TrEMBL record:
Taxonomy of the source species: Eukaryota, Viridiplantae, Streptophyta, Embryophyta, Tracheophyta
SGNH hydrolase-type esterase domain ranges (all copies): 11-197
Keywords: Hydrolase, Lipid degradation, Lipid metabolism
CDD domains with a match to the protein in the record: Isoamyl_acetate_hydrolase_like (cd01838)
The protein's name: SGNH hydrolase-type esterase domain-containing protein
Single GO MF annotation: hydrolase activity
Organism per entry: Brassica carinata (Ethiopian mustard)
Family from the record: Belongs to the 'GDSL' lipolytic enzyme family.
One GO BP annotation of this record: lipid catabolic process
Residue stretches in coiled coil: none
Length: 256
């Protein structure tokens, strides 16, 4: 544990979460935005579905932890929505079970504290042609279709509406981009830098618009060690120092 103590924002999900700090990922974007505001904590597990997540949710988020997260961003659904394998093995989860799993995960997170907030990310679309093109010789055929993705995305959105949770509809969000199939993915499934910008922008929008007390919007949160200091950079006139604690000019994109 290092100090000072900061709010914790946990990213919990499958490969789109695990890989969110690479390729200009949305997790890296959030870490930059909240660099002196909150700790972004990664709990991403490549290939996982909602069933595996439910099996460990009480280990990742123990109810008796001394400090509970301020915000949990949850993504499962892409692997769940894959077509079932004839053997019965693999990540596919039937839609009713997926909904039950996600509801159980949400209820567990809601039980952590009165101030723990939750955002679900729904199942995104895929570039079906590229998924077929990138089939691995070491794996059985991966069947992902946008028809299945939309079904699971819609179910996630509907569940969040039922539970009063914030949700980012990734299936719709990514398709807002021109040539989305080309620009939003690295391999037809996982997010490119452009795809991640869309995801980060939607998360930041939801956080800004949510009526949470205290607010978790980055502009509303205190900046760590933001007091003026004679050790700051010296101004051009040489008479004062300039406090740089709120500077964001070096961001690739100026986030609201």
């Amino acid at each position: 544990m290092v100090g000072p103590s900061r709010p914790q924002i946990v990213l919990f999900g499958s490969s789109i979460v695990q890989m969110s700090f690479g390729h200009g990922g949305w997790g890296a974007i959030l870490s930059e935005v909240y660099a002196r505001k909150a700790d972004i904590i990664l709990r991403g597990y490549y290939g996982w579905n909602s069933t595996r997540a439910l099996q460990v949710v009480d280990q990742v988020f123990p109810k008796d932890a001394e400090v509970q997260p301020s915000l949990v961003v949850v993504y499962f659904g892409g692997n769940d929505s894959m077509a079932p394998h004839p053997s019965g093995l693999g990540p596919h989860v039937p839609l009713p079970q997926y909904v039950d799993n996600m509801k159980s995960i949400a209820l567990h997170l809601q039980s952590l504290s009165d101030s723990t907030r939750i955002i679900f990310l729904s199942c995104p679309p895929v570039d079906e042609a590229k998924v077929r093109q990138n089939q691995s010789p070491y794996l059985s055929e991966v069947i992902r279709t946008n028809e299945l993705c939309k079904t699971y995305s819609d179910a996630c959105v509907e569940l969040c509406q039922e539970l009063g949770l914030q949700v980012v509809d990734l299936f719709s969000t990514l398709q807002k981009a021109d040539d989305w199939e080309t620009v939003c993915f690295t391999d037809g499934i996982h997010l490119s830098a452009q795809g991640s910008k869309l995801v980060a922008g939607e998360i930041l929008r939801v956080v800004k618009e949510a009526e949470w007390t205290p607010s978790l919007h980055w502009k509303s949160m205190p900046t760590e060690f933001s007091e003026d200091s004679p050790y700051d950079l010296v101004s051009a006139d040489g008479k004062n120092t300039v406090n740089s604690s709120e500077w964001t000019y070096f961001w690739e994109e100026q986030w609201d």
